[in-house]
Amino acid sequence: MTPDMVAELLRQLMKEAMILAGPLLIAAAALSFVLSLMQTLTSLQEQSLTSVPRLGLIALIMLAGMPWFLERLAAYTRLLLGDLRRYLG
């Protein structure tokens, strides 16, 4: 396997990781912003008021998006296994 092939594999892997993690990170950041704004406006400084809703939102998004996440991972795995002979030599 050449260094170019390794770089291409890592590029594809990072692209898939960003596509899969993107919705979760954007939703968590948006919710954190809203919750921090509410905490600032109401002068509540309880840490559980931010972490519990964020964990709940992430769990909800993961459950709702699980078919899409698994389809993307399965397609990527099929792509890797389909080209396995090319990578091994």
Q: Overview of this structure, please?
A:
The protein contains 3 helices and no strands. Helix 1 packs antiparallel against helix 2. With 89 residues, it is an all-alpha fold. The protein has helices at 3-42, 48-82, 84-88. The chain has one domain (3-88).
Compact description:
With 89 residues, the protein is an all-alpha fold. Helices cover 90% and strands 0% of the residues.
How does the SSE layout of this entry go?
Blueprint: H1 3-42, H2 48-82, H3 84-88
Helix pairs in contact: 1-2
Please give the share of residues in helix. over 70%
What pattern of helices and strands is seen along the backbone?
HHH
Rg: 19 Å
Counting DSSP E segments of at least 2 residues, the number of strands comes to 0
Low-confidence stretches: none
Provide the domain count.
1
Separation, N- and C-terminal Cα atoms: 6 Å
The fraction of residues in strands falls at under 5%
Helix- and strand-based class?
Answer: mainly alpha
Main β-sheet: number of strands, strand sense, barrel status? none
- Count of helix runs: 3
Q: Characteristics of this structure?
A:
89 residues; mainly alpha; 3 helices; 90% helix; elongated
